[in-house]
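Why do we care about 3D structure at all? Because function follows from shape, and shape follows, mostly, from sequence. That is the central idea of this module. The next example makes it concrete: a single protein chain, its amino acid sequence, and then its structure expressed as tokens.
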Amino acid sequence: METDSSTLVKQTTNPTLVLLFILFPSHVFSQGIAISNSASNAPAAGSMLHVYGTTRIGSATTADGVLIFNNATNAKTVTISPGPTGISYSLILPPLQAAAANYVLLNDGAGNLSWGPPTTGTEWQLLGNPNTNPAVNFLGTTDAQPLRLATNGTERLRINTSGNIGVGTEDPSSKFDIRNGDITLSNSGTAGAIKLQGSSTGKTSIKAGTQGATDIPWVLPPTQGGASTLLTNDGAGNLSWGNLNSLGAATFQLSQGVNYGTSQTISSTTDVDLDGMVVTVPEGTYMIWFSSDVLNGNNSNTCTVTIYTNGSANAISERNFSGLVKKNMVSAMGVVTVTGTSPLEIRVRVRVDANNATFYKRSLMGLKIG
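And the structure:
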């Protein structure tokens, strides 16, 4: 009866036969023993025994497979055994050495091992965490240090200890601070909006129009505007402060001294500017009307109102106050032309023939007619 070597090992408990079995299919080299189906396979350098193939230790029914390592320094041993397992499984070692000290072997649940820092069960996982409690669990710090988020090794976002969020800055100065970049707001099918809430529940929205694929840039003025000024556009999106007159509007209206506590007294026999009665306008032809209440306290004979355009006298109106010592109204109306000669303005000047007159509630209105 012919018995192969594997059957021999299964059936015998004689140590001599077992030793013969090991030596018979093996290839003995001066540096160690190689167990292989090929005579050309030699043991690796420094190895007493080198097995080419899968090695099973222990019995499936009677004995655990155990590896025992002796320590040559103090004769101690380290034993590796499977322990009581309910299933069969495999572990695949990582292909590289640990990247840092104190790393441990981590299992991905499929038996693939990798090196990583030790886990405590409270860390945030790359694939998400189950059973979290928002009243207890959070992503962040418990000391006075900012939270940093990075990509490709570069910080992209930071939440500082005051709760300010910074994008592109390590020192956010407001609740949301973005530097060195743009912000795009968009909604599917509708215009994106910035909503500003006032002191109550109402909100003011700023939205883009229906502009298709056209970009519309606006560049704000570099300085604050004056009272009653408007934002004007140069056609390229550059905004500046102006008024209706600088826009070439069809009408303008100026008022000065809306009550009798504000006045201007004129005693000159030559033309003098009336306070506030000057307006800068584009070139064109204007129908204008000026009026003012006048208190003739010193019995002046006449008051002359002159409308200047481009620095020159244009329209003249006289009012005779002879014998009148009371409040009167003086007015001037006419058509004036503003040309390309500087200054491009309409200005009101007055004079009296003698003594003085006090002007209240002055008003200048105009209509561009050409």
